[in-house]
Amino acid sequence: MKIFDRYTHLLEWIQSKGHKPRVLGYAPDGAMIVCVKSGGEKEPAIFISAGSHSTEQAGVTTAVQLLDQLETEHQVYVIPSRDPMGMNGFGYALSLSLGEEPSLDSLEDAHAILRERGEVLYEEGSTLLVIIGEYGYSTRGLYGRLPKGASFLKPLLGRRIFFPSHANGIEGTAPCQRAYTLIVSPEGEVLHINRFHDTPWAPVEVRCTRRLMAEIRPGLTLDLHEYGGDAFWFSARHQRNDGDEKWEGRMADEMIQAVAHSGAQLVAETYLPGSFFTKGERGVFWLNPQERGEGLNLADFAAREYGPSFTIETGMRSRFQQRVSTSLLAAQTAVKVFEERYKGDTN
Ligand SMILES: [Zn+2]
Question: What's the gap in Å between 29 CA and the centre of ligand 1?
Answer without folding.
Answer: 22
